[in-house]
Amino acid sequence: MKNKKNKKLLYISLFSAIIILILSGCPNTSFNGPILDGPRNIIIDVDNRVFNSQDAANEWEKGLGLDKITFTVNLEGGSGNVEQEMLPTDIDSTYNFTQVSIPIEGKLLSINAVGSHGTDTFTAMINDESIFDDYAGWEVFANVLKFKLGFQISDDIANSYLAFSICPRGGNSVVLKYDSGVTAPADQQTDWGGTALSSKQIAIEPVFNENPTGLTFDVYTLVVDKNLRDLYFGPLNPDKDGGYYQHHPWKEIWEYNEITKTGLQIGNKIYRLKKYNTDPLSAVEPMGDGVGYNSYLIDLTAETTDPVGKYLLIALILTYEGLSIPTKTDIIEIK
């Protein structure tokens, strides 16, 4: 009996030790700093297409045909819950997303949206970050200031829905257009409006999946000898150019720290990007107010080693009110 009792105690002790180790290894997700509860504005970027007809001719133009959206910001203390409506006539066509600014006071608990179209009703709610987001500067949901209201549309309207997310939006949400080297106007991909590009110059134009007002970004780059995407990620057939590299493969979306600090191992080498710009760049006219275009110039003409024929690793870090998130990492041939 004594041996059985000792074994039982041993198993309990081992089990307890494992639980303690697991718990001690978990990150501390609690936030003990100040919670915003004073007067401020909650910004919601609403996808303009949500008001478009469900029967629009082109798929990319179809919407839910909403007659109105009612937002309810649920608060603890302060002013109490705040409600605000948005109508189709409120659309700001300057960008693809209209910013709705809602004055609040109190601790943010959640935001609800109810959209209506005749007898159809669509709802959305947000009260936490997504597990798929990789934010730096994250504190707590209550301190978030900017959100996006998008939607998903289905052939069966009953399966369509509204969807909230926290801004800024990174990852694959940002499309990076670029022109490398001398580019004829007819071949331009960006809206570059400065002096015509010469060899070793690259114009980039990030297209954001949100309203860019108040959004800034930083550019991180590194010149590399080969197209790492083709070498370490691509066709499964090893007889063709490129191949699927199982150990330390190319990764489209690097983590925030991999872009800004540690670098990322691809194949047998660690690649560390460097910040290209000095001050944060405005998402609207990053070359300066009044220039009239949303492209930004990366100039490699002063490189001591000729970069032509090599490739530029590039990633952006988007920031809004202290909350930052990386875009996907791209690779551009230098011409």
What do you see in this structure?
With 335 residues, the chain is mainly beta. The strands form five sheets. Strands 11, 14, 15, 17, 18 and 19 form a six-stranded antiparallel sheet that branches. A hairpin with an 8-residue loop joins strand 7 and strand 8. It is globular, with a radius of gyration of 25 Å. The protein starts with a helix and ends with a strand. The relative contact order is 0.14.
The portion of residues assigned to helices is 10-25%
Q: Helix tally?
A: 3
Strand content: 25-35%
Low-confidence stretches: 1-28
Q: Let me know the average pLDDT.
A: 89
How far apart lie the N and C ends? 81 Å
Helix/strand order: HEEEEEEEEEEEHHEEEEEEEE
The tally of beta strands, per DSSP, is: 19
The biggest sheet, with number of strands, parallel, antiparallel or mixed sense and barrel status, is: 6 strands, antiparallel
- Backbone structural class: mainly beta
Quick one: overall form?
A: globular
Secondary-structure map:
Elements: H1 2-25, E1 40-47, E2 68-76, E3 82-86, E4 97-104, E5 107-117, E6 120-126, E7 146-152, E8 161-166, E9 175-180, E10 201-207, E11 216-224, H2 228-232, H3 256-262, E12 264-266, E13 269-271, E14 274-275, E15 281-282, E16 296-299, E17 311-320, E18 323-326, E19 330-333
What brief labels describe this structure?
single chain; 335 residues; mainly beta; six-stranded antiparallel sheet; globular
Summarize the structure.
The chain has helices at residues 2-25, 228-232, 256-262, and strands at 40-47, 68-76, 82-86, 97-104, 107-117, 120-126, 146-152, 161-166, 175-180, 201-207, 216-224, 264-266, 269-271, 274-275, 281-282, 296-299, 311-320, 323-326, 330-333.
